[in-house]
Known about the structure:
Layout: H1 2-26, H2 31-45, H3 53-58, H4 68-78, H5 81-97, E1 103-108, H6 113-119, E2 127-132, E3 163-167, H7 171-178, E4 195-201, H8 202-209, H9 213-222, E5 224-236, H10 240-256, E6 260-269, E7 272-280, H11 293-303, H12 319-325, H13 330-337, E8 356-357, E9 362-366, E10 375-379, E11 388-389, E12 398-400, H14 402-415, H15 418-430, E13 431-434, E14 442-445, E15 454-455, E16 463-465, H16 466-475, H17 501-505, H18 507-512, E17 515-517, E18 528-529, H19 539-553, H20 560-566
Parallel strand pairs: 1-2, 1-4, 2-3, 4-5, 8-11, 15-18
Antiparallel strand pairs: 5-7, 6-7, 9-10, 12-14, 13-14, 16-17
Helix pairs in contact: 1-2, 5-6, 7-9, 9-10, 11-12
Amino acid sequence: xxxxxxxxxxxxxxxxxxxxxxxxxxxxxxxxxxxxxxxxxxxxxxxxxxxxxxxxxxxxxxxxxxxxxxxxxxxxxxxxxxxxxxxxxxxxxxxxxxxxxxxxxxxxxxxxxxxxxxxxxxxxxxxxxxxxxxxxxxxxxxxxxxxxxxxxxxxxxxxxxxxxxxxxxxxxxxxxxxxxxxxxxxxxxxxxxxxxxxxxxxxxxxxxxxxxxxxxxxxxxxxxxxxxxxxxxxxxxxxxxxxxxxxxxxxxxxxxxxxxxxxxxxxxxxxxxxxxxxxxxxxxxxxxxxxxxxxxxxxxxxxxxxxxxxxxxxxxxxxxxxxxxxxxxxxxxxxxxxxxxxxxxxxxxxxxxxxxxxxxxxxxxxxxxxxxxxxxxxxxxxxxxxxxxxxxxxxxxxxxxxxxxxxxxxxxxxxxxxxxxxxxxxxxxxxxxxxxxxxxxxxxxxxxxxxxxxxxxxxxxxxxxxxxxxxxxxxxxxxxxxxxxxxxxxxxxxxxxxxxxxxxxxxxxxxxxxxxxxxxxxxxxxxxxxxxxxxxxxxxxxxxxxxxxxxxxxxxxxxxxxxxxxxxxx
Length: 570
């Protein structure tokens, strides 16, 4: 009977081990988590040969018996592989998003030592101000070890020459005394120089600050440089109180002046995920946040120190991981869209309820605009006002990330080779640039023959991007390329969205735009859109494009595609 139990126990262990290995190979990034899981199973069936004296010694000095259980549990969680994964996910996305992170601040309790370890892996970092608001587990904490890190001057990360540790419970008061709103320019005093990136443990600070959260938020904003950013550790997605406070907290940061806010989640331990929010003072600095996988990997290679042992400096973070954080999980979108009042962009789901005219309802022919005007799109059937056009077939456009499109432009201008010229003319002639990724524009092209829809001169368009059409009708209904002024670029500001998980999850769909029929179209009629707000880079480019459209409509200029075809260029 006992042999049967022993055999069953061995079989359970072997099965668990094999299952762990298989899962680890299928999900390499989480391999260490599942190995930890196997160790937990193993401990249930096999008596340990020895006690872990190293772990035991770390708990010898504990300041308060009442907190002993909580502290030990907290410490054990932090020693788990999933916590290592979490800290890489917390630190590196925003560090790589900033172009030159020299000065960094950390605000939180001593568990933020793990974040400090990750921050010091970056070559650009000159100084880290660590504002420790908690009670250390012991005087010489070894929660983060910089022994193996090239560039570190000591084994203990806190004692690195670049780190200045400050014990301070009242963060708001400390920040206000150092950085005030009246400081318009960067200080020449290095101790007063503002921070490029700030890491905040909001879990501890929300409880500590209480009702004065707005004062803390303003102090945080004033402590940042012109291109400053904050990584906010918001806490468990299972914490209903934190999630309930989140909308008001985000609104405070928007009110303070932050121009771009995004959030994502990462595993904190095997049973819970935490919500991380990044806040940017300047929306133009989003280029690296939206970088593609190869570009992020290049940034990691350039900006992360190697290890002395030649092992990987980052074990759980790479370009593919960063790409995943750009699209928040579905539940964050649902949480956002269930707010009262409901955010306006969430209502765009109602477009799906409209009657959609499929691509089979259209045909490509020579445009009626005039000689040399190229091709145009014509309706084969009558289409009623309010219908969408090719919605289901237009969800995934041709997309060129900002840095990719910038490289193509540079390559084309420098070498002007045939292959580069063909592709450049295709994107330039049939696509459009967008500023959604920051100060370097990205590029999009319609994925089908809807790209042949021409601009409707003098307000003759019969389709329009639904959101901009509503804004124009409310604010300047007679606006056309003929009477556009530079100040009309301000109409775009009315649709600027600072924080929207919905938008972050539907960027491609938003950029393709759901064109709505604004005037009945009869069979045989050409389809015209309004190109006026297709250029969103800046006011100067907007007005330049408006004048170009005016020249086309008045017969004074011809489009790029027509130019190339008339000159027989590719």
